# Entry
Amino acid sequence: MSESLEDLRNEIDQVDHQIVEALNSRAQLSQRVGQFKSDNGDPVFAPSREAGVIKRAIKLSDGTLPDEVIADIFRKIMASSRALQRLMRVAYLGPELSFSHKAAVDMFDQGGEYIAARSISEIFRLTRSGDVEYGVVPIENTIGGTVGDSIDSFVEGNVVVISEFSLQVIHNLMSHSDITNIHTVYSHPQALAQCNDWLSKNLPTAQRVEVASTSAAAIKSASEDGSAAIGLDTAAESNSLKLIRQGIQDIDENYTRFFLIGRQPNPPSGDDQTAICFAVADRIGALHDVLGIMRNHDISLSNMQSRPARGRSQEKAGDYVFYAEFPGHEKDNDIADALNQVRSLCTMTKILGSWPIDRSLNSMR
# Structure
């Protein structure tokens, strides 16, 4: 006799019961871990440990669920576990309901107390001073490139990268009005630019007005008939606006990579990424020599950018400070040896942190 739909649902109910029991058991263990951390002064968030948990879970899976689904489930579980141990103060680039706010919430879920900062430099200041435990800062966008303010703040602020996160940028059109009655569209300049083709095709006569943020655009549109805003779907819900069109960005593969910054460096996880900033002496071949050291130690640079020096090095450093990323941990023998040699050739060398690579995330490196 073949099994019925009701039979299958009963089996699912039994599995669900086991899942809930297992989650409760895990949560109770997590609370005991939190007490141990509190007694010993250890940080609640341990990126290297969490990366290992995700990798182990993916390895245990038989492939029925995609790796990224397993990773998302365990991120949620671990964020909930952290919330049971202690809420953490997390600074992000405000206002609320911005993409930076979403990135922070995606990282910490209900385990965070979120503090809106007015600038990227303020996020660094709050983290460095201990007013918050962590800060979330954008570092790179697939369309807009590197976020210069973040790199500049790393050079000037004594904090380290402890984790990273990539967020897909999805722009939505929201309004009280029907699309045929929209005559004005508000949003941040970048959002308007990233939806230019869609707006030209679907709202060719609508005036485009730049405002300070996508959150501010939603607030503005909520009080003005015949207007619309471009922003997150959560901003529509918060301001009682209708989602007129979703995903109106011109390029779907639009991701922003964020760094989570803190004050305590990570131990090696076995699969890490490191970032540094350095300024070379003002002489011919100085940068070539630094890159030669990297090459001789088989260090492959996955990202390298230059920023105006603006007097940030200890001595005359030419015109630029260089930012670079590469696989490995700063304490790995080859990398530690290479960095010591680099220091001898540079007027300023700063390790910005080493953090575990999450292979399940969209990679922008």
Remarks:
- The chain has four domains: 5-84, 87-169+255-260, 172-244, 268-356.
- Confidence is low (pLDDT under 50) at residues 313-317.
- The first strand starts at residue 88 and ends at 93.
